[in-house]
Design a protein that fits this description.
The complex is a heterodimer of chains A (about 375) and B (about 300). Chain A is built from ten helices and 21 strands. Chain A is of the alpha+beta class and about 375 residues long. Chain A is elongated. Chain B is mainly α and about 300 residues long. Chain B folds into two domains: about 55 residues; about 230 residues, Orthogonal Bundle (MetI-like fold). Chain B has a two-stranded antiparallel ribbon. In chain B, strand 1 and strand 2 form a beta hairpin. Classes of the chains: A alpha+beta (about 375), B mainly alpha (about 300). At the A-B interface, strand 6 and helix 2 of A face helix 8 and helix 9 of B. Chain B: This is sn-glycerol 3-phosphate transport system permease protein.
């Protein structure tokens, strides 16, 4: 069943036209849906429109197959977690959690039952009498989650809930939120600017830029077949390696410095010869063993991550990164043999930035393993 | 070898302490240098007059204010047996009781209204805070016209409803209320502005979260606005309180303490004692008593209030 549906949703302010434009989207029940984009892309605005905190300028918003454009936030049967948690500083954790139930005049007995249940689930039982300022960042985050859980609303909206936490805690909370969502069967709409969060948490992801949908899909599809240059460079870390390219005399020439011989089978249906941009993921620039190397490149930076090594090369005016498994004792200035092949390259039109042809070999070699 | 090392360390700690002491003295002197302008100003205009007043309160004086006879506590004794002073004490307390809650409630109401995001709300904010820019003298003249027994608007409005005209400033039952009314009007501007500032610093996320939770307007007002505003409210109440005790201008302009001393607040009584009756000693004693009353009540307020105030 479709839980949330948007039809041609639009938002504009008096002084700023078209903050959001032509948003068409359906979110399934029980789905973990992530809205991701750089700051100013309109993702928080879209979330606040769903919540009812912002007016909808145009289009239709449906929740549970009912049009809710005109409904106030409290009538939309949803809960929301804010970036700064929006805890009431003068109330204790218990009062904070019960604030909504109290406002809705839920029965006292039921309130206590839900409080105990939620506090246990979130590990807050010991902290109920404390004020928010006596809690650590992670504990505050859990109170904010508890406030959302206790409402028993089937739809939960989260606006960058992890951005105030340190890296370690963030990784931990990612798993906790995901587990909570699955356990309670919530429909989740989650806003973030962090593509790692989006990739690791989302069942499906929507990439938003300048108020327009760039691509909607599951994380792997976004990674393997980015619809345009924006999605390609936004998703994935390290960033995808991009270079302008032309096809001349059965050769692909990248940034005027790398020449790769190609056959028709390699490029398939590409008829365009000029204004191409190619993208290749860092893990697809392999170390070239003696007989298989295609190029030799000069290393300009090395980053050791422990189990893998990032090497940076200069290709024309672009910096390319290769990710090699294991520990490689390369030094700056070394010439290292690499293997770059066309089958791992995605082709984009430089002018429209749209994808022309995704990397042909990802599915075979990159093993999206189904268990 | 190791003994030597320890000894060397000992020597160092001594020197460290010495160096720290020198640094501390230096920074203290620097601090005093920065404070010097205010120390001088306060000494000349605050501390010296304060001690002079205490000194004067033990003496009888001639008309120029020079001390003549030392009377010890007699000035204070005389004051507390004088029905006139007791009357002005009563009037002052009543005046505070009328004006402080009045001012705070009216300005809180206006501030909550003006905090709404509406088109042209800036105009209302300007109007509501405008009395801050009006001097006591000008405001008093303005209210004098309103209170005028025959051509005053207030009485004309009353007549319109068929109510008998009221001697706003001449009727002993009404005079204090009239002065309080005009005082509330004068103080609302300042109080309004401070409260509006307090309201605007409340995080809008709190209200949005409450909206999603389904809280009603009054529930939000009671559970979020008032508690979050409590530090500001506390400040405003304390300041209005002190101001009310020190009221002089509007009493002087509107009623001159009359009728039948019904509006003779302490500060006005001090003024009369000192500059009409030339009893500087007695006036000083009254001033000291006023100071002690304000000090004590403010302390009590802090003791009681602090428990109910939520600082963020």
């Amino acid at each position: 069943m479709q839980h949330v549906e948007m039809i041609d949703l639009e938002k504009s302010y008096d002084n700023q036209k078209n903050v959001l434009n032509g948003i068409n989207l359906a979110i399934e029940e029980g789905e973990f849906f992530v809205l991701v984009g750089p700051s100013g892309s309109g993702k928080s605005t879209l979330l606040r429109m769903i919540a009812g905190l912002e007016d909808i300028t145009g289009g239709i918003l449906k929740i549970n197959d009912k049009v809710v454009n005109h409904l106030r936030p409290k009538d939309r049967n949803l809960s929301m977690v804010f970036q700064n948690y929006a805890l009431y500083p003068h109330l204790t954790v218990e009062q904070n959690i019960l604030f909504g139930l109290h406002a809705k005049k839920v029965e006292k007995k039921e309130q206590q039952k839900r409080l105990i249940e939620t506090a246990e689930m979130m590990g807050l039982t010991e902290l109920l009498k404390r004020k928010p300022k006596q809690l650590s960042g992670g504990q505050r985050q859990r109170v904010a989650l508890a406030r959302s859980v206790v409402s028993h609303a089937p739809l939960c909206l989260m606006d960058e809930p992890l951005s105030n936490l340190d890296a370690k805690l963030r990784a931990h909370m990612r798993i906790e939120i995901r587990r909570l969502q699955k356990k309670l069967g919530l429909t989740m709409i989650y806003v973030t600017h962090d593509q790692v969060e989006a990739m690791t948490m989302g069942d499906r992801i929507m990439v938003l830029n300048d108020g327009k949908i760039q691509q909607v899909g599951d994380p792997i599809t976004l990674y393997n077949e980015p619809a345009n240059l924006f999605v390609a460079s936004f998703i994935g870390s390290p960033k995808i390696n991009l270079g302008t390219a032309v096809i001349r005399d059965h050769h692909l020439i990248i940034e005027d410095s790398i020449h790769i011989p190609i056959t028709t089978s390699d490029i398939g249906n590409i008829i365009q010869k000029d204004d191409l941009t190619i993208g290749i993921r860092a893990e697809h620039i392999f170390h070239g063993e003696e007989d298989k190397k295609t190029h030799e490149l000069e290393v300009i930076n090395v980053e050791h991550l422990g189990n893998e090594t990032l090497l940076t090369f200069e290709i024309g005016k672009e910096l390319w990164t290769a990710k090699w498994l294991g520990q490689w004792r390369a030094r700056v200035g070394d010439k290292v043999p690499v293997k770059i092949s066309v089958e791992h390259m995605s082709f984009f039109d430089s002018k429209t930035t749209e994808l022309i042809k995704p990397a042909s070999n990802t599915a075979k070699e990159q093993e999206v393993v189904a268990i | 070898m190791s003994d030597l090392l320890i000894e060397a360390e000992k020597d160092y700690t001594g020197e460290f302490l010495k160096a720290k002491k020198v640094q501390r003295t230096k920074s203290f002197l620097k601090g005093v240098l920065f404070l010097l302008p205010s120390i001088i100003l306060f000494s000349v205009f605050l501390f010296y007059p304060l001690f002079k007043t205490i000194y004067l309160s033990f003496f009888l004086t001639d008309s120029s204010g020079a001390t003549t006879v030392f009377v010890g506590m007699n000035n204070f004794k005389a004051i507390f047996t004088s029905p006139l002073f007791l009357k002005s004490l009563e009037v002052t307390f009543l005046f505070v009781l009328y004006t402080v809650p009045g001012t705070v409630i009216v300005s809180l109401f206006l501030a909550v209204l003006a905090n709404e995001k509406l088109r042209g709300i800036g105009i209302f904010r300007t109007i509501f805070s405008s009395t801050m820019g009006i001097s006591v003298a000008a405001a008093s003249v303005f209210w004098m016209f309103l209170f005028h027994p025959t051509i005053g608007w207030l009485n004309q409005i009353l007549e319109l409803f068929g109510v008998e005209a009221i001697g706003w400033l001449t009727d002993p039952d009404w005079a204090l209320i009239s002065v309080s009314l005009s005082t509330i009007w004068m103080n609302v501007g300042f109080t309004f502005l401070i409260l509006l500032g307090g309201l605007q610093s409340i995080d809008s996320y709190l209200y949005e979260s409450a909206d999603i939770d389904g809280a009603s307007y009054f529930y939000k007002l009671r559970r979020i606005t008032i508690p979050m505003l409590s530090p500001t409210l506390f400040f405003v109440i304390t300041v209005s309180f002190i101001n009310a005790f020190q009221t002089f201008g509007q009493v002087d302009m509107l009623t001159r303490g009359g009728p039948q001393n019904e509006t003779n607040v302490i500060v006005y009584s001090i003024y009369q004692e000192a500059f009409m009756n030339y009893q500087h000693g007695a006036a000083s004693a009254q001033a000291i008593i006023l100071f002690v009353i304000i000090l004590l009540l403010t302390l009590v307020q802090f003791k009681l209030g602090e428990r109910k105030v939520h600082y963020q």
